[in-house]
Amino acid sequence: MDDSLKNLPTSHLLGSVPAVISEEKEKSTTSYDVPEANMQIFPPNNGGDRGRGYQTLGSPSPGEGFEQQPANNWRGVFSISSYTQYFNVDTDIVLNRLLSALHPIGGDFFAKIDANPDLYGLIWISTTLVFVLASLGNCATYLMQKHTNSGTSWSFNVNYVNVAAGSVYGYAAVVPLAFYFLLQYMGSNPSLVKFWCMWGYSLFIFVLASFLLVIPVEFLRWMIILLTGAASACFVGSNLKSYIEGSDLTIVVVAAFTLQLALAVFIKVWFFP
């Protein structure tokens, strides 16, 4: 091909493409700013009060912010959600605390429950003790009566249930509350939930002792209940002493020790006569 033909213009030919103009190239490469977009939370609200609508992340609704805040006023006392944290225990934790309650001179029970005191033990152990005293108390009177005079008729004493419920629940609730106000009056800073937890677990040993009190031997019954009461009283006294360490409140420890022994004597006299 002749070299002169290479220089002929070709823009008029069929199928030819015009050269890209530099101005259009500059316009095509010009950057533009995209308006800032916010991520949204679905589902949207199409109007009215049918839904919560779009919400920007990081800006919770007023209702959510209110629900996440703990109840810090008197209304929290009547809210069930305020007490759920005191039932957040599993089987291993409860068993560990039950075994600690059987160690009367450890004095470290408050250290074990410091991070998570519970009311589960208080309610469960108290309720178990009520039914155990009512049932085994009747069983013990039956065996004792048959042991002394087999010809005498025996009848189930329903009143044991009422006395057991009133005495056990009353003791487990009122005694820790009384010591809480007493220590506050004396200038200490006690925890009512910890007191309820400790006194609740201190009743566990009476559940075990009740099965031995069924034995129809009066002397053996007194030995069992006195040893049980002393062990429970030592558990309460030693832990209470460690809790108020540094304060001269010996009278408080002696009072707690005496009340625990009095409970043991009451159980023997009323339910296992």
TrEMBL record:
It comes from the Eukaryota. It is found in: Golgi apparatus membrane; Membrane. It is a multi-pass membrane protein. The keyword Transmembrane applies. One of its GO terms (biological process) is vesicle-mediated transport. Residues 103-266 form the Yip1 domain. InterPro entries: Yip1_dom, Yip5/YIPF1/YIPF2. GO terms for molecular function: small GTPase binding. One of its GO terms (cellular component) is Golgi membrane. The chain crosses the membrane at residues 119-143, 163-183, 195-213, 219-237, 249-271. Its main location: Golgi. Keywords: Membrane, Transmembrane, Transmembrane helix. Belongs to the YIP1 family. This is Protein YIP. It comes from Trema orientale. The lineage of its organism: Eukaryota, Viridiplantae, Streptophyta, Embryophyta, Tracheophyta.
